[in-house]
Automatic annotation (TrEMBL):
PANTHER family: GNAT FAMILY ACETYLTRANSFERASE (PTHR42791), N-ACETYLTRANSFERASE DOMAIN-CONTAINING PROTEIN (PTHR42791:SF2). It comes from Colletotrichum higginsianum (strain IMI 349063) (Crucifer anthracnose fungus). Transmembrane segments: none annotated. This is Acetyltransferase. Signal peptide: none annotated.
Amino acid sequence: MPLTMRPATPADVPDLAAIYFSAFHDNPVAMACFPASSPACRDFIAASFTEEMADPRAHWLVVTDPDAPESPDQPIACAKWVRPAAAAAGEPN
């Protein structure tokens, strides 16, 4: 199973939200703040991810499984990195 990595796109946001809730399903603090059973929380996380993707300092990556028969480009994992503001402005850290 060779996995591939690519930049995330806004179209990936529903899958990224699902990955988030799957990753933190057993974290009591995360689930107290953002319960997966709440449509409002799911919408909030998706809207937050969409907004964060628009930040030029943010870099989102997704991992896909090209051998998945029905969804070879569907994200199965993700990562986000945000450059520090000082580094983005060309200032030393």
